[in-house]
Amino acid sequence: MSVQPEWIAVSGIIFVAAVVSSTVGFAFSAIAAAMILYCVPNGVEAVRIMMIASIGIQAYSVMGLAHAIRWSRCVPFVLGGLATLPIGIGLLLLLNLSTGTYALAMGAALVAYGLYMLLRRPATIRKGDYPVTDALVGALGGITGPLAASPAIGITIWCGMRGWDKVTQRAVYQPYILIMQVAALAALSLAPRQPPLDPALLTYALPGIAGAVIGVRIFHALNDLQFQRMVNLALVASGLALVLR
């Protein structure tokens, strides 16, 4: 980060995206990616900024959900995500964010799914434990996180299908996002031929936390049905952001 005007512009983008995304608990990077990549031409630095801001947002949100988090429920998702994270990081560096076809296809699918879920009754699966499926869903996020700037797309859809209330859903996918973003930032910093992390970039967590304070208050004002509708709208917005990036 070199010039103050860039910091102000990027921080404004982070703040707005944080308000929107922290209402539902995910989709920050997908919403902010196109604008941040426009302001920060260096793709790897832009990804680092989004990860740092996302870590601030998720850390604030997870602290508020600490009473509801069951780590035994989160572990399969996290283990699956960490197992495939090297694949996502490797593809990110190999393609240098030139994932147009991939992003377009994934974005279109998210828009279609989000609109479909908004127009029909929510689909739920039979109650029970699905540790293998949980791990596979988490593994998907390990790949889509670096490539599509959205590690929680699959897990968000899956948690909604479980029929859980809004707090239970967020108590699963928000700790997952936090752990995955911290791991991804560390992996990216340790990757060969990558410049060390500029400590000044850590200040981008501040506008993320400020936006999260507002977004979490909006979240608490929503009932479960309103929350699920907001999640589906966020999926549509994430898909559009991927299509248009």
Folded structure, characterized:
The chain is mostly helical and 245 residues long. It has one domain (4-244). The protein has ten helices and no strands. Helix 1 (4-24) packs antiparallel against helix 2 (28-39), helix 3 (43-64) packs antiparallel against helix 8 (166-190) and helix 5 (100-119) packs antiparallel against helix 10. The chain is globular.
State the oligomer: single chain
Number of domains: 1
Written as H for each helix and E for each strand, in order along the chain, the element string is HHHHHHHHHH
Helix content: over 70%
Distance between the termini: 22 Å
In terms of per-residue confidence, which ranges show pLDDT below 50 for 5 or more consecutive residues?
A: none
**Count of separate DSSP helical elements:** 10
- Beta percentage is under 5%
Please compute the radius of gyration using only Cα atoms: 17 Å
Largest sheet: none
Average pLDDT, to the nearest integer? 84
Q: Sum up the overall morphology in one term.
A: globular
* Total number of strands: 0
Helix vs. strand class: mainly alpha
